[in-house]
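User: I'm writing a short report section on ligand binding and want a predicted complex to refer to. Could you take this sequence and beta-D-fructofuranose and write out the structure as tokens? A short remark afterwards would be nice.
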Amino acid sequence: LAQQSTEQWRPAIHFSPKKNWTNDPNGLIYINGNYHLFFQHNPQGNEWGNMSWGHAKSKDLLHWEELPLAIPHGKEYIFSGCVVYDKDHVSVLGDPSKPLLIAIYTADYPNTLQEQHLAFSNDEGLTWTKYAQNPVLSINLKDFRDPNIIYHGPSKQFVMTVVKPWEYTAQFYGSKDLIHWSLLSEFGPQGDVDMIWECPSLLELPVENSKEKKWVLALSSQGPYKKAVGMQYFVGNFDGKTFTNDAPKEQVNYVDYGRDFYAAIPFYNTANTETFWLGWMLSWSYAKEQPTFPWKGQMSLARTLSLVRTSQGLKLKQVLKPDLTKMKPSFEAKNLVLKGSKTLSGMKFLQSKTYVIELKVDAANAKQWGIELGDEAKQNPELTRIGFDEKSQDWFIDRRLSGEIPAPGFDVIQSAPFVAGEDKVMQLVVDRSTIELLAQDGLVAISSLRFPKKKETVRLVSLGGELRIKELRIWEVK
Ligand code: FRU
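Assistant: Sure. The structure tokens for the complex follow:
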């Protein structure tokens, strides 16, 4: 039976491969005016397997051009990893007259061994040569993966973060030449150790409204519905050798409270002015069942990262990159009072389009408020509800009735706690099947998929009372 293509669900400004499977983003790097995205890819099928690196590039992080397969697998699967710019040719690989990119990734010998391999490219990532003396790092472990590298100025070395998944441990290695690596220290177990640790990264982030910078260790861990969300982070210090967590060992900080945000890693940014990342928008819990064809898997939008001092201590803030809300809105309304549900004139044309909606509210006496995406049916309506619950003080995305439910347990309410003392602002990106809620200026994130089957309208909703909207703005994105 020929499978139907599901282009109606393909996001327009979130990367998805033309065909076949993807999971984690890999080797994110900005160089010579282009953002490069490598990705875990099965070049032969729409399910996990034959793991290789796919490749795409973009000038604006919104529109991606898919390029030929970058690193094909051999006997070894090419698992997740990173790309760095070897500006000074310290590795002494390749052609010294051309810019040199170094990929360091996990070579996976299924069920046997994982070790860190190197490949290099002199043509901006189009073609790669696997280093003849691989591995560059092995500790003879079956599970030892996902290297991510930064250049650490003060200690004049590259620092690799890599995990021992089943030990909930991140390791740090240092190197001057990207080839010889020596162990600096280990971190963990700390925080959430419900599920294995994967895809770590070490980031130095600015603390807003101060001159201070702090180090953040971010990582992914997820699995069948045992745990709802996939990424956590620790805030502390890194001195070139050791990462220390400022918070008590047990404290857990989540990056995103949606089911569909995983394996985010930062761009290796040669301009070095800010730190931004993007993640895989899917969950291992039902990735196999994602009902899309001929592709499976898509990336989140890129998000600029910083830390904010809140009533709950330092919190990660994620702002869209580019910040679409800095553009001129396609529709704007001010000082509205709303009861029940309503479609404003500027919302009528959004059907099946890609857009961002921002709501700034004084909640007044509404019990629950937000945005509803759905059809008009009275019976068996299709509905994705996004908003805030005044009683539980939670932001939420409710996809229980959102259309196709690809796997048991997909039909849930995903919620995130309100950050006390900050404004009630919500920003919602809707890109067909792919939605991202960034609330409270990016202190709260919920990323989620949903698969509507019917044409949907966009409505503002206020339940159980009145909602005072200070400002509503909409940006249609093309
Ligand atoms: C995370 C992950 C990584 C691994 C890759 C394999 O989603 O399991 O740990 O490198 O996917 O595709």
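A remark for your report: The chain has two domains: 7-321, 326-476. The pocket of beta-D-fructofuranose is lined by residues 23-24, 40, 51, 79-80, 106, 145-146, 198-199, 263 (CB under 6 Å).
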